[in-house]
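quick one before i forget lol
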Amino acid sequence: MGTALNLINQSEVVLAGHAPSWIHVTLNYLVPYLVASYSAAKNEVGRSQRSGSDPSGQR
């Protein structure tokens, strides 16, 4: 996902011969990872609460 976002967001800068903003490059990889991780963790907590078990697998 980060590569696609970088191509979309930084293509004009790179094609103009300038260096990309490394903060933006980093964020284009980091933000999707963090959103997916948060979503997966929230899903696991919700699933464990519905089933009555501890997210760590202990009861």
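fyi The chain has a mean pLDDT of 90.
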